[in-house]
Amino acid sequence: MSIGDKAKDAVQKAAGHVEEAVGKKTDDAELTAQGQKDKSMSEDRLDTERAKDDGKL
Question: What's the whole-number mean pLDDT along residues 31-46?
Fold first, then answer.
């Protein structure tokens, strides 16, 4: 995975944190769920790429 892709996933993870926090503050369940989904997807991609970089996959 390129550095650009890793940065993109890190930004998506941060955006997910923000969406989730805003959703909780405004009682917007849809926004909260979207934030959790974004965080989860980016964490999964980052974990997969870390494993590839370590030679485990």
Answer: 93
